[in-house]
Amino acid sequence: MTGTPASSTRRGFLRAGLAAGVALPAGATLARAQAAPDPLITEVQDWARYSGDGVDETPYGLPIRFEADVIRRNVPWLTADTISSINFTPIHALDGTITPAGCAFERHHSGAIELAKPDYRLMINGLVERPLVFSYDDLERFPRRQGVYFCECAANTGMEWAGAQLNGSQFTHGMIHNMEYVGVALRTLLAEAGVKPEGKWVYVEGADASSNGRSIPLDKAMDDVMVAFKANGEALRKEHGYPARLVVPGWEGNLWVKWLRRIEVTDAPVESREETSKYTDTLANGVSRQWTWVMDAKSVVTAPSPQVAIRHGPGPLVITGLAWSGRGAITRVDVSVDGGRNWTTARLAQPGVPMAVTRFYLDHLWDGEEMLLQSRAVDETGYVQPTKAALRDIRGENSIYHNNGIQTWWIKKDGTAENVEIS
Amino acid sequence: MSKSRKTAALLIILAAAPAAAQTRLPPAEQASAATPLGLGRPALPEEVAAWDLDVSPDGTGLPEGSGDVATGEEIYLEQCAACHGDFAEGLDNWPALSGGEGTLDRVDPERTIGSYWPHLSTVWDYVHRSMPFGNAQILTPDETYAITAYLLYSNGLAEDDFVLSNENFAEIRMPNAGGFIPDDRAASEYPVFSAAPCMENCKDSVEITMHASVLDVTPDDAGDATGAAAGDPAGDAGSD
Question: Moybdenum cofactor oxidoreductase dimerisation domain location, by residue (chain A) (predicted)?
């Protein structure tokens, strides 16, 4: 569903603007004239005269200092401490789909532990023919699988259930990252141990104190779950489960067990703390959904947004954001600038990839007036991202998890933006 | 191990999942070793025993042992009360382990062991494996039975002379045991949200009904919180 926007040329911009009834200020589509020569051009700058850094300066680099605001942030009041807590990916400042590991969000229950490869052990036990112990080196000898997948915390956007609360896509939608993983299919490891016929579930847990044990149906375990040891080309970062984690495509992040140490084949779910007390979704009538594994289709405009004001004034504006679905590929993203009264189908930067993040763009001609900016994702099952009101009608406001409702940014005439809810 | 009716229902749901919902892996990734490669080594019984600590709802996995409420209170006051309060009521932002009965259908329900948790097995398992916070896996089975007994007492679910053991464990039924259903979105939401969406003239008017700036709880550039949550809107988004 990608297409060339009508507004990709200046004439197209004018046409699109006129078609949408946009009255542009005079000269808005013309490049601004420079009153005096620009010294950055007319005077020789230091960087054009003196040498820069040598190739021995930075064996492993960090972003340039001007990008110091593109960092993970946390919200101190969200949790009792920072050890069992969450931080947020700066999605407002990123583009494309791959999340740099160094600013990809973290969620720990007993902190990010340091586990060296020589100390790593992975056990498979339970309803198997051969209970086994693998070393890290063993893992690297199995046939490998590669895939790009989003990991979204079940609680992403959870603070917004009762209304607009946090001001920025980083905080409202930043419990997500999207990486290219390499590892071993879980079914390959299970085949090594030999699953007995009565095995119906796997219970997976980490090496950390919290353990984060979760139950996963065998069908999913045998399908696309993998034990990953590389992300975005390199070893997993410590905070993302070094040296090995579970990757569970399309399913809530809590199941992506880090520092994976044990896989137990069982005939029933364990009903651990992380699938009873937590990661269960209370409905308005007090009954709670359990095992809500899949993350439904969702999107958010990352720019403009509260952390990314429009500073260039009226005229051409790139509206961009992310869309993803745990039930397959994103096929379409619609964008509204008037609070959902009218929608325009945006351009997907690349065709949607199942269970991975998709980048969308809408090349817009901003008239300088207020906007109520929204995005609406559609996935290959035909599911259309619902409004928050539509979700609340079914679930109430106490679910905590799985808030995939449509986000609204109020863009003011001065270009600043705010997280709002609308009728 | 007995399967609950809930699990049976869930397995039916899984079995009935349409093919469209199944993953389509790229052809290159569909090949995987179906026959053992001979990697790894047999797990020794002592190793399995050291790591396989999980306890299922029917009590499977519980070690032999017992503990009473009074002993549990002693250990609890020493190991747990600094965060969770003398009566398991929770201190500051630390989780309450008791209270909240009858609040699940209200705004801001209080989900505790007594008001929310479906199985006692989860209490034993989680405390034994992951508590005290910052110093986990120090509790013996008997100490874990005693603390679990004290938590039942704190929630009004046991008398003060109660003794919990692996023998009577399976007899305990938690108040909210019937309060959970397997994910039902396929029936309750997917048909509703799969209609062709409106593209033009979808509403007569639009009004802003809520502003995040009114709350003003977003960290500023320095990364500091500029306010406190109104009530507990974050719920358990990241808290334990």
Answer: 290-407
